[in-house]
Amino acid sequence: MDRRQLLVATGTLASVGLAGCAGLGGSDDGPDQPYVADSTVADQAGLIVNVAVVNPTDSPVEIEVWARLLDNDGNELDRGSVTATIDAGDNATLPVTFNPSGYVSSAVESHEVDLIRPGGEPSFSNSESS
Which domains are seen in the chain, by residue range? Predict the structure, then answer.
C-alpha cells in the first residue's frame, strides 16, 4: 500500500468516530446533529482534505469544518477550514485546501478533522489521527 492509499484508508477510519465533536454529536439513538462521515486527502496542485458531512436534522445547519495536516511525529504542519450550510437531511463533501508553504506535501503522514459551529476554535480533541 502506498502513502496516498494509507492516508485515504486511515482518514476514513479516523473520521467515523467524530460525531461527538464540539457539541455537534448525536444521542444514543443515532446522530441528531451534523457529523463527519468520512475524510480523505488528495494531492492535486496542493493538498485537499475532502470531508464528507451529514446533516440528519430537520433544519439547515451552518458548520465550520477544520482539518490539520500532521507529519510522521504527529507535529502539525498546517491547518485550514471551510464554512458551509448543509441543508436538512442532506450531506456534502467539503474541500479544505492547503498550499504547502514551509513544508512539502510528501511530509504529510496523517490528518485530523474537527466539526464546529462557525467562529469557534477547533480542538481536535475528539478526533483521532489518521
Answer: 3-102+110-116 (2.60.40.3230)
